[in-house]
Amino acid sequence: MEVKVFNEDWKIFQGDAVVFFTFEEGLEELPHEVLEKVKPFAQDENFKGKKGEILKVPVSGYAFKRIYIAGLGKREKVNRNVAREVSAKVAQRLLKDKNKIVLIDVKKAICSQACSEGLVLGSYNFDKYKTKKDEENSKGWEKVYFTNADEKKVILGRVLAEAQNFTRDLVNTPPNEINPETFPQIAREIAEQYGFEVDIKDPCWVEREMPGLWAVGRGSKTKPRFIHLIYKPQGEAKKKIAFVGKGLTFDSGGLNLKPEQFMKTMKMDKSGACAVLGIFKALGELKKLGLAPQNVEIHGFVGVAENMPGGESYRPDDIIKMRNGKTVEVANTDAEGRITLGDVLTYASEQSPDYIVDMATLTGACVVALGEYTAGIFGNNEDFVHTYWEISKKTGERMWQLPLDDELMREEIKSEVADLSNLGKSRYGGAITAAMFLQEFVGQKDGNPIPWIHIDIAGPAWARKPYKWNPKSGGTGFGVRTAVEFILSEDQNS
Ligand code: BES
Ligand code: MN
Ligand code: ZN
């Protein structure tokens, strides 16, 4: 979809619709000519401009057919998260009414980037597999123009949101299409399209080099693969940032098979990996626009596997000697994410990055702790956690810090027969014990642990129903925008 900036007077716009934002009870601040037209309709429908309220007004005498007024709610509460949310609602309404060419005046909504993000995210739809396509289709757009907007920010917003939509598409794609064999092909396509380095390791390599990833994935017909994607700026990079994604294309639980209500939707267990690909999609688009980072090098690491029961599956009681030499007793084959990520974190650490961020749909316990809209954020470096968390407040990707409790909880993941168990002794604090398991595989650089954060996205990676800027149930693309914003801010600071 084409997103552009329109620098002329809205009155001469040619298209289908023009949209203005308003604060609650702030209608009088609309341009005079607009107010005159809108007022009778607003009174008639008791439109106040509450958050998400939308008023449609047919007009004549212009080269467009209708004006929409979108409520932002209380003036003092408006911020970029509100602007993004309302813009997404506007997008859905405009598509529903079959508008194809529209102009959006972002003046009152303040933040051009958030408006552009909301518009693109709110237009999302996944009807690829429907033989009769949905009526409100994002392909309904011909052009979206913004006015009173910062052009660079509009473009950045579009790029970030399109990358998030790309991640949503991947997450929503079913496990009979995306599996450990086909997922790496998508990574390769991105690399070829944008000129990134990519290294894809075949199952033989995984069997030899990543015993944990191999164990988890060996029961599937499509055996595990490993992907390493690299973005390098033109000049010398000052920092290296690594992103690690959990890539279970389907998690049946393995021999510890999940009951039916928990198995459904487990195609989403690849959400972390899909977010990593989304980051590279955004970097690629920024590169095409000449806006890509110049000071930071970005590495993406993904272990892809399918957790299936079968004659070749790994078993409870197995002991695996991991890539870093630590031994893991398998207590439950459904706690597989941490085993795959252990080896991938080791590999990522061997590349000596300055930071590691992992994103994983790791535990149901995290959803129990924080609810389904908030990710758990953990880390071995408080400054790093703080920096990342602050950025997430601007992107509206909700996160909340949970502790790594070395003092009292480390013994939870001890095993009688191996260095570690893949399951806590008690059910309590399951998100924490999983994160502490991962920490065992974060390596050192110059004698110090590499600053690392772990984001448990089991809740927010998937929407059971539409909310905020997620217009459809399904994959949300959570994590992509915060990651890219972090990259851009590190690029600025180096
Ligand atoms: N992929 C799941 C975690 C999950 C649960 C993600 C719900 C998204 C929504 C993970 O591999 C898993 O199965 N975890 C188990 C761990 C248990 C066996 C200790 C869980 O959360 O029940
Ligand atoms: Mn599992
Ligand atoms: Zn899983």
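^ manganese (II) ion complex. Residues 248, 251, 269, 336-337 surround zinc ion (ligand 3) (CB under 6 Å). The chain is about 35% helix and 20% strand.
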